[in-house]
Amino acid sequence: MLNSQVLIRETDFSRLAHTWEQLAEQMKEQGDSKTPAKLLQLAEKTKKAELNIAFCGHFSAGKSTMINTLLGVNLLPSNPIPTSANVVKIRGGEKAARVYTNASGVITFDPDTEMEKLKQFAVDGDTVESVEVSYPGTFLDEYSSLLDTPGIDSTDAAHKIATESALHLADVVIYMMDYNHVQAEENFNFTKTLKDRGKPVYLVVNMIDKHLDFELDFESYKESVEEAFATWNIKPDGIYYTSLAEPDHLENQYEELRSMLGQLITDREELVAKSVRSAADHLIEEHIQEVKASQAGKRQELENKLGSIEVDGLDSSDAQAVATNLQDAEAQAKTLESRTIEARKQMEKDLGVLLDNARLTYYSTNEAAESYLESRKPGFKLGFLFAGKKTEEEKARREEVLLTEFREKVAGNLDFHFRELMGKQLQVYDIRDEEYHARVHATKIEITPEFLAKHIKDGAQSREYVMNYCNDISAGIKLEYRRVGLGFIEQVTALLEQQVGAEGAAQHERLAALRELADVHKKLSELAAGEEAAKQRLQAIMREGDKES
C-alpha cells in the first residue's frame, strides 16, 4: 500500500479528471473525433475514483454465469451464445437498469422484472452506446463495477469493437477461458495486448470439471498452462482454476477468486490512480494513431511518389541516402558549373608561371646585344676602304649573332616547355582532340630582325641600356607566346564547355530527381514531426497535471 502522503497525491482524482478533459479538448482541436470521447469517459470515471473490473474472454467461457454467481443474483443471460454487442456494466447502488442509446437518450428498466427488454437492447450494437445495471446487496458498492464484455472470439466485428472500446475504462481484467480452449491463439494475442497496455490481468480457467485425471494429472495440466503463457512472454498477475458446475471440485479456486476481487475493491483508490494514468497514456497513443490515420492518404501519396522516382544506385525510400546523394550531386553540379572558369584560371596561371620562370637572356646574350646595339648607333662605320660594304656586312653579322643567341635561348628555355604545357591541357581535362595537338606542334613563333630592331630605343650606350634592351626583347617574345598561349587556352575552354554541357544534362536530370525525392522526404518528415509535436503537447499536459496532483 502507498503511504498516506503519496496516496493523497496519487488520488487527487478531481485534478486528474480535469487533466483528461484538457487532453480531450486538445485532441478535438487536432481533428480527432474518436479519442476525446474516451478521455471524457475516463474523466467521469476518475472523478468518482470508480473501479472497473472487466471480465473478458471466450463467449463460451462462462463469463455471464461467473458474474451472476459472484453477485448472487441472475442479472446477466447465461446462454452459450454472444449475448451483447455492448459492454454491460454492473455496480452496486440503487436498483436500476439503464440503456444509453444514440437516438432515444437514456431508457430505464426494472432489473427484476424487465431484464428481457434490456437483453433486446443489449444485442443492438448499432443504436445502443452502453448498458448499465446497478443492484444493491452484492459485494459491489457504487464505486465498484464489473464489466461484462462481448466474447473476443466472436466473428461479429461489433462485439470486438465494443470490447476494445471498454478497455480504457478497465482497471483490472479477469480473462476467462474454457478448460478445453486455453491454448487458443486468440487467448495469447489478447492477453499480451492487455499486459502490453499495463493492465493487471488475472487468468481464470473455468469448467475444470471437464478434466480427466487418468489422461493427465491436474498439476501437470496447470504447469502446461503456465508454460504456454510464458512462451508468449505473458506474465499474468494470477491464475485461478474454477468450476461452477462442481463447486466442491478439489481444484476449484472460486473462493480464492472471489476473495481476490474483494481485495481489489479494498485497494480501489490505489488501483484507479495508477490505472487512469496508464489509460490516459494509451489514449494519447490512440490519438496519435488517429492523427496518423487522418494523414494516411497524404502519407501514401507521398510514399507512392517516392516509388515512382528512380535514381540509379539509390534506394529512394532511404531518406538519409537521398540526402547524402543530393549533397554530393549539388557539390558536383557546383564543381561542374565552375569547371570551365576554374580550368581557364588554372591554365592561365600555369602559362604565367612558365613565362615568368623562363630565362631568355644570359651574359652571352648581353654581349651579343651590346655589339648589335653598337652597330645600330648613328655614325657606326667600319674601316676606310669599302667602308660602306664592310659596315653593312658587320651590322648583318652582329644581327645574326644576336638572333642565333636569342633564338637558341628561347628554343631551349621557353618554346619546348610552352608546347609541352599547351599539349597536355586536353589530357588534364580528359579530352581527346588530335587536331588541337597538331595545331600546338605546328606552332612557330618567329624571332625576326624586325623584332630585334623595334625594341631599340634612343639613348646613350651603357651597360644599363643594354640590360634594359635585353629585358625588352625577353618581355616582347614572352608577350607573343602569351598571346598564342591564350589562343590555345580559348580552344581548350571551348572543348571543355562541350564536355561540361554533355555531363551537365545528365547531372541536371539526376539532381532534379534527387531534389524531388528530398522534398518528398521532407514532407514525410514534417508529417512525422507534426505527430510527434502533438504527442509532446499532450504529454506536457499530463506532466503538468501530475505536478498539480
From TrEMBL:
Keywords: Coiled coil, GTP-binding, Hydrolase, Membrane, Nucleotide-binding. GO terms for cellular component: membrane. InterPro entries: Dynamin_N (IPR045063), Mitofusin_fam (IPR027094), P-loop_NTPase (IPR027417). GO terms for biological process: mitochondrial fusion. Its main location: membrane. Residues 319-346 form a coiled coil. CDD domains: DLP_2 (cd09912). Residues 53-206 form the Dynamin N-terminal domain. GO terms for molecular function: GTP binding; GTPase activity. It holds the Pfam family Dynamin_N. Transmembrane segments: none annotated. It is found in: Membrane. This is Dynamin family protein. It comes from Brevibacillus reuszeri.
